[in-house]
Amino acid sequence: MDELSARQLREKIVAGEVRSAEAVAKVFERIEKFDPEVGAYISTYRDEAFETAEDVDRRVSAGEAVGVLAGVPVAIKDNMCTTFGATTCASKILENFHSPYNATVVEKLLAADAVIVGKANMDEFAMGSSTENSALKRTVNPWDANRVPGGSSGGPAAAVAGRLCSAALGSDTGGSIRQPAGFCGVVGLKPTYGRVSRFGLVAYGSSLDQIGPITRTVDDCALMLGVIAGHDPSDSTSVDEQTAHVPDYLEKLDQPVGNLKIANVPKFNEGADEQVRAALDEALDVYRQLGAEVLDIEMPHLDYAIAAYYVIATAEASSNLARYDGVHYGHRTERPRDYVEVYSKSRAEAFGKEVKRRIMLGTYALSSGYYDAYYLKALKVRNLIRNDFADAFGECNCIVMPVSPTTAFRLGDKIDDPLQMYLSDVYTIAANLAGIPGISIPCGFDDKGLPIGLQILAPAFGEAELLRIARMFEANTDWHKKAPPLESVDN
Amino acid sequence: MPERIDREQVTKVAKLSRLELSEAEVAEFTGQLSAILDYVEKMNELDTTDIEPLAHCLPLSNVFREDSVKESLGTEKALANAPQRDGPFFKVPKILDESFGA
Q1: Looking at residues A140-161, what average pLDDT do you find?
Q2: Catalytic residue among A5, A99, A129, A176
Q3: Is B41 part of any domain?
Q4: Residue pLDDT, tens place only, A334-375
């Protein structure tokens, strides 16, 4: 029997064929068995999970209405606020922080009757590409325990790939959903900026951050997006219905897109590993066989995306992270000599190296004498990059490229060279700068057996078509059905 | 080649950032930030003379609402995570010394 997707599991629960409590028990069995090695979760909530599951089961047997994620075990990245447990951001500074409110996405998951099984590991404050910057624990790639799961949503991606939940939510500021999804062989979607509320998401780069689903299939991704998308009065950057309607992402999902035009950017892809490029070429062939036209285009400013991103994101971070002052919440140094030390020692003691590095870089870029040369320049380059996308989407439905230049790298390989780590984000960053949606779907394996991801980018608020395009590929390939060799999934 | 950012500047930025760095961290960050800034210089290959800066991708406009009384967090919840409190207040070390205002 094939394993169940989140959507199929929900249907079986609603039909009374499977009890949610059974599904949750199975997930916790796997967590107990495999998570000591994988390290996907910072915290798990067994009692609360069973309580929700049993409530769903009771309502199903009583014939009551249940939500669209009824009884489905999900994980959330630990930078989304919850009133249960801590919201750590994988940082010492928030290790004991208990949020007084739930993030809007958490409220939406609960309203859809999802069962939140745990909060997943990440790079501290979502800063990183390997999850090695977590101050609280180490996550490994379920496909190879010597390799990183990607980052910063490495925990959610590893949990989904390792079948330690049915689906998860991550957040993506420069690729933090798509890259770990690619490294772990699962599906990851960064929605359009403004599509999903950021209320209760711990801020990193506020003009770039976006929450999105990490799932095993494209239809689960559409299902999850439908739950979390939409306007939120608590987030002024979330877009209202009038500006961009939230469609039913599942409704036409299985209808192939006619007259599909896909743009390829061969020059930009030259930097990717040979096997990654080969997998991309094969993916393009799949689309050609489905009747799509592939056009080669140039996007001259994409080469400057990393430079612009690491100025803009760090500038925003330096401002956002000023709130960690040791006064209102979070770590405070013991016996400060004066109030300045409350700030400078608390922050020095409890922020990790990468967080300090980015705060420093951003502060420098915004400081007097450097603002024009770095921050303002980066905002102008950002505009050029957005224009590149506008020009490209004038002649195609979507753009494809690799998710990252290589497959999952080894633990420790890049951790001492921050610039090398940044350069691994080359293919994902531009979508955040332009605010457009992007999805990563499994499209092959390299000769070491590591998953390769295919990235598809679409115009702003084009998620419905983007998901259909991704589904076309998935429906004609089997890559998404491969599970990592932790142990065969026993149903 | 001189480093793009020197120790003195790193120390100044650390102060602006309210981060107390050790000597070893200053040395490490000087090299790493210089390498990153060298890379970022790449942006100068582009002529951006007539290009508008783009701070945000959405056409944002101000949002108005009625100024109505709503439920708020409440003192206990707001103080629940405080490292130190004194009754209904956040407690911090003295900010003004005795000479102030004398």
Answers
A1: 98
A2: A176
A3: yes
A4: 989 888 999 999 999 999 999 999 999 999 999 989 999 999
pTM for the model stands at 0.96
Identify residue A114 by its one-letter amino acid code: A
Quick check: is B92 in a domain?
A: no
Q: Tell me, what's the pLDDT at B64?
A: 83
Closest-CA distance of chain A to residue B21, Å: 7
**Residues of chain B contacting A239 with CB distance shorter than 8 Å:** 58
One-letter amino acid identity for B42? K
Domain count, chain A: 1
Active site residue A488: no
Tell me, yes or no, whether B3 lies in a domain: yes
Domain count, chain B: 1
Q: Report if residue A465 sits inside a domain.
A: yes
Q: Considering the domain boundaries, does residue A476 fall inside one? A: yes
- Is residue A176 part of the annotated active site? The answer reads yes
pLDDT tens digits, A176-233: 999 999 999 999 999 999 999 999 999 999 999 999 999 999 999 999 999 999 999 9
> Nearest residue on chain A to B73, judged by CA atoms?
A100
Full domain range(s) for residue A444 = 6-260+436-490
CATH of the domain at A448: 3.90.1300.10
- State which residue of chain B sits closest to A316, comparing Cα positions: B55
- pLDDT recorded at residue B97: 67
Decide if A399 is inside a domain. no
Residue partners of A388: CB distance under 8 A and separation at least 6: A299, A300, A301, A302, A430
- Chain A residues in contact with B77 (beta carbon < 8 A): 100
What DSSP string describes A328-397? SSS---SS-SSHHHHHHHHHHHHS-HHHHHHHHHHHHHHSTTTIIIIIIHHHHHHHHHHHHHHHHHTT-S
